[in-house]
Every structure is written in C-alpha cells, then in structure tokens.
Amino acid sequence: MAGAKDYQETLALIAYLFDYPNEAWWAQLSACRKTAAKISTPQNQRVITDLLDYIEAMGQKEYEEFYVRTFEFSTNTNLYLTMHDRTDFGKQAREMLEFKNLFLDNGFDLNKELPDFLPAILELTASLIPTQAHKVLEAARPKIELLKSRFVEAKLAHTFLLDVILTEADELESETA
After folding, report:
1. Each residue of 107-121: pLDDT tens digit?
2. Distance CA 66, CA 118 (A)
3. What is the maximal distance between C-alpha atoms in the chain?
C-alpha cells in the first residue's frame, strides 16, 4: 500500500503549504522539503519543490503579504471552495452543508475551519483510505477545477499544486476502480 502512503503524504503536504504562513509554518519548511523528497511521483515532487523554492525566494514578509492578498482577501482566489461560483446564499449554504457532511460521514468534525476550506478538505482526504479519499476528492473536484481556472487567470504558481491534487484524484480513481 505504498501508493496510499504517497497520496496521503502528498495531500497532507499540499494542505500544509496552503495554510497561513505563520512563524511555526516557516519553521517547518525544511521538513516540508524532506517530505517532498519522499514523494514517489517525480512530477509531483518537482512541483512541490519548485513551489518551496518560490516561497523561500520571495521571503517571509513578502510571501505573507502575498498569501493574505491572494488567499484570504481575494474573492477570486481564496481557498473557500463555495465562494467562487455562488449565485445565491441558499446555494452556498447547501454546498457548505455538503462539505460538512463529507467530514461527518468520515468520522470527523471541524471546530476551527469552515468545511469548504481547501486545506481542511485535503487533510481529511489524507487521513482516509483510498476509496473514501477518492469520494471526497470527487465531491470537491468541480470546485477545485473552478479554483484552478481562477489561479490560472491570476497566474499563480500555486496552480500547479491544484494540478497535483487533481492528478492524485485521478490516481485514486484508477486504484479504486
């Protein structure tokens, strides 16, 4: 089950990289590099390593400002998956409930994050067996694909992390089919 461990480490690492870059986050970047070096898919390993290089080259203050501007304040590129195509608040509430149920159906509940927060979904997926992980990623796929299109428009280096997530979803599909 080496493949299972690989998708779990990959998705957990991407979840971490999408988290807010506070002091503790910065302190763990060298550990992130070590985890990335263990990923068996060379392309995924390269994407994550390149992003780590990009983040470190930008520097702490500049990257934190970029993160807040891009992933917290932007309605186009924030990491809350129900925010990008909402046409009415009733639809958004139903979608939020669907994400909440993904957590509850897998024995988890969220106390600190909203259930549509991409890092939380990735952490959930990384904790599940392949069949369940596939179901969660497939439920989130349309939202991740929409977010990816927004990242492409904004020319964000993080777009490639979304590609890795979608690739992992495809791999899980082939493993569970």
Report:
1. 888 777 788 999 999
2. 18
3. 45
Q: 8 is written with which tokens?
A: 């779990």
Q: Cα dist. 99→123, 143, 150 in Å?
A: 13, 11, 21
Residue 139's closest CA among 177, 77, 97?
97
Produce one character per residue of 1-37: b if its CB has 16 or more CB atoms within 10 Å, e if not: eeeeebbbbbbbbbbbbbbebeeebeeeeeebeebbe
What letter represents residue 98's amino acid?
Answer: E
- Cβ atoms 10, 44 nearer than 8 A: yes
- Which tokens belong to 47? 């994407």
**Three-class SS of residue 88?**
coil
- Tokens found for residue 128: 């599940």
Segment 82-114, tens digit of pLDDT: 887 666 667 778 888 888 988 889 888 877 778
Q: What are phi and psi of 159, to 5 degrees?
A: -55, -40
Residue 138 backbone phi and psi in degrees, to 5 = -65, -35
The residue type found at 156 is L
140 vs 99: CA distance, rounded Å: 8
